[in-house]
């Protein structure tokens, strides 16, 4: 099965994806793909043509935070960037899924920040919503990204609402206890997805 993961910022989607990986799944990390793609010479050349060499950091590589500042409040610029990056991410993901099927993986996990917004859910057999209370998510992003509550809310307003994501998802995993509890919940959801897909599959 191809399984998408959604949830609020700081919900622990990457942690859930890592547990799926421990259970034999292959993970397609869209953020990691974007980081690699943005350093591709052809992509870098296009970004410089649009926005100049100011997008480079001190290491002479594309600085994603500078790109984010350009596109965050400018929908036209954001769509331009997405039109360049999304097809390349999709191409990598399609190759990864084909290899995973060939290797007999337990599943493929798509960890994409904008799964619904980018229409990636259409590639999934199931979507899992990671449910984490706001105060826990706020504490995480404060620690890992230095964001205060206003910054978290500002970022989340650019995405689909959490209730909308929850309603469009097929399964929910609560991420609010110990790591062992989370592992158990992920294992049970994977077993349910595989069972449900088997039951839905047409018989010969």
Separation of termini? Answer: 19 Å
Helix content: 55-70%
Structural class assignment: alpha/beta
How would you write the strand order of the largest sheet? 2-3-1-4-5
Q: SSE order, as H and E? A: EHEHHHHEEHHHEH
Shape: globular
Count of alpha and pi helical runs? 9
Task: Please tell me about this protein's structure.
This protein is α/β, with parallel strands linked by helices and 204 residues long. Strands 2-3-1-4-5 form a five-stranded parallel beta sheet, with helices on both faces.
Any key phrases for this structure?
204 residues, alpha/beta, 9 helices, 5 strands
Short description:
It is built from nine helices and five strands. It has helices at 13-22, 30-38, 41-51, 64-71, 75-103, 134-145, 149-156, 162-168, 179-200; strands at residues 2-7, 25-29, 107-111, 126-131, 171-174.
Topology at a glance:
Elements: E1 2-7, H1 13-22, E2 25-29, H2 30-38, H3 41-51, H4 64-71, H5 75-103, E3 107-111, E4 126-131, H6 134-145, H7 149-156, H8 162-168, E5 171-174, H9 179-200
Helix pairs in contact: 2-5
């Amino acid at each position: 099965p191809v399984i998408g993961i959604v949830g609020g910022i700081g919900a622990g989607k990457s942690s859930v994806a890592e547990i799926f990986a421990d259970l034999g799944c292959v993970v397609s990390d869209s953020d990691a793909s974007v980081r690699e793609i943005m350093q591709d010479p052809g992509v870098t050349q296009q970004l410089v043509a649009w926005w100049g060499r100011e997008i480079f950091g001190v290491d002479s590589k594309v600085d994603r935070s500078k790109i984010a500042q350009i596109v965050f409040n400018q929908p036209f610029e954001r769509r331009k960037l997405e039109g360049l990056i999304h097809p390349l991410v999709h191409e990598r993901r399609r190759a990864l899924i084909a290899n995973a099927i060939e290797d007999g993986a337990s599943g493929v996990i798509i960890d994409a920040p904008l799964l619904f917004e980018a229409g990636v859910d259409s590639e999934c057999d199931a979507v899992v919503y990671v449910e984490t209370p706001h105060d826990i998510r706020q504490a995480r992003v404060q620690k890992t990204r230095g964001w205060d509550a206003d910054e978290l809310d500002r970022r989340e307003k650019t995405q689909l609402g959490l209730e909308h994501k929850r309603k469009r998802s097929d399964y929910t995993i609560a991420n609010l206890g110990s790591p062992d509890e989370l592992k158990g919940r992920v294992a049970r959801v994977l077993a349910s997805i595989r069972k449900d897909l088997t039951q839905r599959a047409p018989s010969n």
